[in-house]
Amino acid sequence: MIGSLDELRAVRAVLDEAKREMGVVERIELGVMIETPAAAVTADLIAAEADFLSIGTNDLTQYVLAMDRGNPELAARIDAMHPAILRMIDQTCRGAEKHHRWVGVCGGLASDVAATAILLGLGVTELSTTASIAPEVKAKVRSLSLDACRDLAAQALNQTSPEAVRALAKTFGA
């Protein structure tokens, strides 16, 4: 869990040393998992030196909402379609875009077909889904207009609850 550019630089130094020891001369891409609020809000700084960003929505959701997903009393209330999570994803995508970096999403939200259009509209360029849902997500992506996704995402960012975001997404798919 990278939380700062300094941590990325430390990992890069270890990678460079390992390359030297092994005699590897070709460039190896190094990406960052965005799983903490600190990483999301400083994504523009991290993206200046990372080759790509991948948002781990399960951990990010847990930390942004301050709810332990292992706690059975809280687990049902954890929803990555919460506007706060979507705003973190938006901020990450905008930070990455400044440096022409791609952004992926993994975790539960990538496999949530209701979120597909919103994620694309926010600027996500890769979804790491479960194998069983991948064909449905691919079909959904092929059916979407990027401009319409951007409009939907802008509306989603202004909702007040995950339920409102999900209702909006449902009307979009209708």
Structure, described:
This protein has helices spanning about 5-20, 35-40, 45, 55-65, 85-100, 115-120, 135-140, 145-155, 160-174, and strands spanning about 30-35, 50-55, 100-105, 125. It has about 170 residues and is α/β, with parallel strands linked by helices. The chain has one domain: TIM Barrel, CATH 3.20.20.60. Strands 1-2-3-4 form a 4-stranded parallel β-sheet. The model has no long low-confidence stretch (mean pLDDT about 95).
How is the topology of this model organized?
Elements: H1 5-22, E1 31-34, H2 37-41, H3 43-47, E2 52-56, H4 57-65, H5 83-98, E3 102-106, H6 113-122, E4 126-127, H7 134-142, H8 146-157, H9 162-173
Parallel strand pairs: 1-2, 2-3, 3-4
Summarize the structure.
This protein has 174 residues and is α/β, with parallel strands linked by helices. The chain has a single domain, classed as Alpha-Beta Barrel (TIM Barrel). Helix content is 55%, strand content 9%.
Task: Please give the CATH class.
Answer: Alpha Beta
- Coarse shape: globular
**Assembly type of the shown chains?**
single chain
Main-sheet strand order equals 1-2-3-4
Order of helices and strands: HEHHEHHEHEHHH
CATH architectural arrangement = Alpha-Beta Barrel
What is the number of helices? 9
CATH homology group: Phosphoenolpyruvate-binding domains
Count of DSSP E strands?
Answer: 4
Mean pLDDT: 94
Distinctive features:
about 170 residues; alpha/beta; TIM Barrel; four-stranded parallel sheet; 9 helices; 4 strands; about 55% helix
